[in-house]
Amino acid sequence: MPLRRTLEDRMLFPLATGISVGLGAAAGLGLAAGGYAYAAMWPGSQIFGRALIAPPRPGELALTFDDSPNPVWTPRLLDILASHDVRATFFMVGSHAQAEPELVRRVVAAGHLIGNHSWSHANLALAAPSRVREELLRTSETLEQIAGVPVKFFRPPFGARRPDVLRTARRLGMVPVLWNAMTSDWKEPSTEKIVQRLTHMIDRLERQGHAANIVLHDGSHLDRGAHRGPSVAAAGQLIARYKDTHRFVTLGAWS
Ligand SMILES: [Zn+2]
């Protein structure tokens, strides 16, 4: 589907510094609609409002899992995290959570943090403000009702945002969150390639003095039970690689 393809490209690739400088200048002058959409998808951009990415604390790693929960793969992931005594952050799609309340409770009971990833995984940069509020509010209310804990973090689907999307999240008591380490794990069959790419990013961020906010997908917004074997295995390998030298944290440690 061309739209999805474009969204994926914007999520993953436009991270070069040169682009960010150019974008900032262009944004100040007022961008054409196409440029606006581009900037709205760019994870490193703060021109659409501030969002949590990662603090200047090399050595800290936050594993975050998007499009959760998945009835097949989230339980396996929980087993891996438990075996290493590592806590992570799960950004849940509200409609998935409603279908898997026991699994949501299991995630929270294991000490992990849950966040809001919208109700339907819509592209909120293109949605009416009333729809944005509905997507966020319904998800937070559902998660809080199921799990009995407040929802304090929001990650926009596809990283797509506008100032009012982030403002709405803040008004609902949430910190907007982006990321600084992601690869196309949702379509990559090789665990080794996922690990290799993320390791490269994590090590580079560390050299630059930053913690890593790592995205993997234990679910899919298109298919609640989607195969996520490589992503889940990659999480285990990353933990094994870094656990003796780094500290794994939830986003609660950064906000
Ligand atoms: Zn997502």
Topology at a glance:
Layout: H1 2-12, H2 17-29, H3 33-40, E1 60-68, H4 73-84, E2 89-92, H5 94-99, H6 101-109, E3 113-116, H7 129-147, E4 153-154, H8 163-171, E5 175-176, E6 181-182, H9 191-207, E7 212-217, H10 229-242, E8 247-249
Parallel strand pairs: 1-2, 1-7, 1-8, 2-3, 4-5, 6-7
The protein binds zinc ion (ZN).
Residues 66-67, 117, 121, 157, 221 line the site of zinc ion.
Overall description:
- There is one protein chain.
- The protein has 255 residues and is an alpha/beta fold.
- Helix content is 46%, strand content 13%.
- It has ten helices and eight strands.
- The chain has helices at residues 2-12, 17-29, 33-40, 73-84, 94-99, 101-109, 129-147, 163-171, 191-207, 229-242; strands at residues 60-68, 89-92, 113-116, 153-154, 175-176, 181-182, 212-217, 247-249.
- The strands form two sheets. Strands 1, 2, 3, 6, 7 and 8 form a six-stranded parallel sheet that branches.
- Helix 8 links the parallel strand 4 and strand 5.
- Helix 7 (129-147) runs parallel beside helix 8 and helix 9 crosses helix 10 (229-242).
- It is globular and about 45 Å long.
- The termini are far apart.
- Residues 13-34 have low confidence and may be disordered.
- Zinc ion binds at residues 66-67, 117, 121, 157, 221.
Using brief descriptors, characterize the structure shown.
single chain; 255 residues; alpha/beta; 6-stranded parallel sheet; two-stranded parallel sheet; 46% helix; globular; binds zinc ion
The low-pLDDT segments are 13-34
Q: Total number of helical segments?
A: 10
Termini distance?
A: 36 Å
Mean pLDDT value: 87
Envelope shape: globular
